Amino acid sequence: MEFPFDINQLFSERVSILDQTLVAGRKSAGRPDLQAHIATVIDELGRASAKAQQLTAPITSASKLQTQRHQLYLLKDAESNGGRGVVVGFLKVGYKKLFLLDRQGAHIEAEPLCVLDFYISENLQRHGYGLELFDFMLQHKNLEPVLMAYDRPSPKFLSFLAKQYCLTQSVPQVNNFVVFEGFFLNRSGSLCAPLTDQGMYGFFGSAEKGSPQKARRRDQTLLSDGERSGASGAEGSSVAVCSSSFPPAVGILPVLPLPQCGLLPTKGPPSSRPVPPPRPLQGQTHELP
Ligand code: COA
Q: Which of 123, 136, 164, 220 is most buried, most CB within 10 Å of its CB?
């Protein structure tokens, strides 16, 4: 994605991490002109992502980023565009307070890191940039993808998760989020949001700690409503072939179309956000205040 200004001047690193300050490194701090350009880039990326997912409105914009406690990882290619650089794509994550529901129907509070938006420029997709960006975020957060929740992932993204991280077995939910087998088994402090004072037990509540029986029950959950609610513009799913260095959550599965792997959610709730025809989901969401 090209812009009429120098991307390399705005973003010095190959991957920049942006938050509500809209500052990308020291260069843009205290420079309203550069921050305005950064806002333009974010807005443009948000629009492109929404278009790619057939959302009626962007879920990522500079103004949203300024008011939400999310982080946006932005990947650039410094050499392109005559050395001025191009923006390759972005990945937005954030902690979400979620309601979980175990098999018995008990609600449990959680606050995992969630993927909220993810986009690679159309002409650069399927070149490994998505993996580079996602891996960067995982290293930065010191997290495994199985421990994250995915806010209404598009079929392309589900295919990406299956291929790159062997995440193929989703745990049935009744909301917009998708989590995978291992999400509950591999829980750790990283599942707790830094803002909570619930500590290690905060994710499931201390009463749930340490019981394999209870841990199994926890594998059926309700999760919260996400920001997104649009359908995806997927071109189709590919096969589940693992290539990541991350330990697979469920092992390498037979090569099957994703729906046969149980990957695609089934049903979604009506949403407050304006959307095109909803893509299949796993059910309703319940987000904590
Ligand atoms: N159709 C199906 N799967 C696709 C795909 C497509 N058009 N594009 C990427 N993928 C998946 C496939 O598993 C692919 O592997 P394959 O080419 O062997 O089938 C894998 O991603 C490629 O990995 P990588 O090159 O690292 O991913 P990427 O740079 O294409 O980025 C996305 C992945 C999902 C971010 C990118 O495709 C994208 O921006 N899609 C449109 C927006 C979107 O759906 N975002 C998800 C929001 S929930």
A: 164
Specify the residue with its C-alpha closest to ligand 1, atom 33: 130
- What confidence score (pLDDT) does residue 265 get? 36
User: Residue 6 and residue 84: Cα distance in Å, rounded?
Assistant: 5
- What pLDDT was estimated at residue 106? 57
**What's the mean per-residue pLDDT of the chain?**
72
pTM: 0.74
Q: Whose CA is nearest to atom 3 of ligand 1?
A: 156
User: Who's near 149: CB < 8 A, 6+ residues apart?
Assistant: 96, 98, 112, 113, 114, 115, 177, 178, 179, 183, 223
Answer yes or no: is the C-beta of 126 below 6 A from any ligand 1 atom. yes
R_g of the chain computed on alpha carbons: 19
Domains of the chain, first to last: 7-240 (3.40.630.30)
Cβ–Cβ under 8 Å, residues 41 and 90? no
Q: Which two tokens stand for residue 262?
A: 């149980």
The Å distance, Cα 135 to ligand 1 centre, comes to 14
Of ligand 1's atoms, which has the minimum distance to the CA of residue 124? 29
* Number of the ligand 1 atom closest to the C-alpha atom of 157: 34
**268 and 176 Cβ atoms separated by less than 8 Å:** yes
Given a contact cutoff of 8 angstroms between Cβ atoms, the answer to whether 257 and 168 are in contact is no
Residues of the chain with pLDDT under 70: 100-106, 186-289
pLDDT at 105: 56
- Closest ligand 1 atom to the C-alpha of 119? 39
The H-assigned helical ranges of the chain are 7-10, 32-52, 62-67, 129-141, 155-165, 212-218
Phi/psi region, residue 28 (left: phi>0; alpha: psi -120 to 50; beta: rest), is alpha
